[in-house]
Amino acid sequence: MAFGSVPTPLGDMLAAVTEDGVAGVGWSHGREERLRERLLARLGLAEVGDPARTAPVLDELARYYAGELRVFGSPVDWRLTTPVQRRVLGTLYETVGYGEAVTYGELAARSGTGVPARAIGSIMGANPIPVIVPCHRVVAGNGLGGFSGGEGVESKRWLLTLEGYLQPMLDWG
């Protein structure tokens, strides 16, 4: 597995890329080494220095955060997900586009898994590939809902504002 990182307005984002595609993405917040070790152990892989493997993913992430990319083209390696997680996250990945959102209940119904809305939230919280597999686009019926990436709900708000789903907040200061 090859690793690379890109600075973003929400902190440095680490990407883990196997020969099959992006297997993990996350904000490192100074814990990059720990994230690398955890991913390598979970996948039973060795780390390789392969900037050519990570460059396309890092470029896409940088372009996304700059507001220049709406659809990720890098292949996804789903092996860190269970079959049910894969079905729910795959449904999200394939059906909820840039600037759109879906409620936990709507995603539960779309996925056809029989997973209740509350459990959809747990699957979103365990998403190993946030931003690329856009768990930030899953919202509660009465608000934003939770978010376990970056700085929590504020990161979710920032991403949804970038995509135009939410209007920018006024700064009264």
From TrEMBL:
Q: Which InterPro entries match?
A: MethylDNA_cys_MeTrfase_AS, MethylDNA_cys_MeTrfase_DNA-bd, MethylDNA_cys_MeTrfase_DNAb, MGMT_N_sf, WH-like_DNA-bd_sf
Record's catalysed reaction(s):
a 4-O-methyl-thymidine in DNA + L-cysteinyl-[protein] = a thymidine in DNA + S-methyl-L-cysteinyl-[protein]; a 6-O-methyl-2'-deoxyguanosine in DNA + L-cysteinyl-[protein] = S-methyl-L-cysteinyl-[protein] + a 2'-deoxyguanosine in DNA
> What are the record keywords, sorted?
DNA damage, DNA repair, Methyltransferase, Transferase
One Gene Ontology term from the biological process aspect of the record:
methylation
> What CDD domains does the entry give?
ATase (cd06445)
The highest taxon in the source lineage is Bacteria
Q: What Pfam families has UniProt attached to this entry?
A: DNA_binding_1
Which EC number(s) does UniProt give? Answer: 2.1.1.63
Q: Where is the signal peptide?
A: none
Q: Indicate the segments forming the Methylated-DNA-[protein]-cysteine S-methyltransferase DNA binding domain, all copies.
A: 84-164
Give the molecular function GO annotations.
methylated-DNA-[protein]-cysteine S-methyltransferase activity
Query: Could you say which protein family the record assigns here?
Result: Belongs to the MGMT family.
The free-text function statement in the UniProt record for this protein reads:
Involved in the cellular defense against the biological effects of O6-methylguanine (O6-MeG) and O4-methylthymine (O4-MeT) in DNA. Repairs the methylated nucleobase in DNA by stoichiometrically transferring the methyl group to a cysteine residue in the enzyme. This is a suicide reaction: the enzyme is irreversibly inactivated.
Name of the molecule in the record: Methylated-DNA--protein-cysteine methyltransferase
Source organism = Streptosporangium sandarakinum
